[in-house]
Amino acid sequence: DLQARFVFSYFYGKNQLPSAKEMTEETVNKVKSLLAQGYKKRQAHMLGNNQMQYFTELANTAQIENIKPVMAKLHSESSNLFNENLLHFREDIFKIIDSETFVKVN
After folding, report:
1. CB of 7 closer than 8 Å to CB of 58
2. Domain residue limits at 15
3. Are residues 33 and 55 in the same domain?
4. Domain count, the chain
5. Fewest CB within 10 angstroms: 50, 64, 89, 102, which?
6. How many CB atoms lie within 10 A of CB 67?
7. Do 91 and 106 contact (CB within 8 A), yes or no?
8. Is this model's pTM higher than 0.85 or not?
9. What is the pLDDT of residues 37-79, one digit of tens each?
10. Which long-range contacts (CB under 8 A, 24 or more apart) does 35-42 make?
């Protein structure tokens, strides 16, 4: 949802894209930063614990509403459960309490 709203803000003219040179420089700097943090080149697309930071950057850049923190937290929990219990992680049921909190129901 956030990524789609980000793209639409440029597609429909609310925002204007930087130059190709600026975008390339930003990409190169971002990859260098990830490599300095210990990521391998093939892991450059992985967000992990930086997911909410990524969403916040998108929202701020495009001047759009960010996703609720609970969604990033829920995604992180789901990813952990996927890694811990591959066969049954889809059976987990969650209830969103508010914009920050969720609970596992089962």
Report:
1. no
2. 2-62
3. yes
4. 2
5. 50
6. 19
7. yes
8. no
9. 888 888 877 777 778 889 999 999 999 999 999 998 888 888 8
10. none
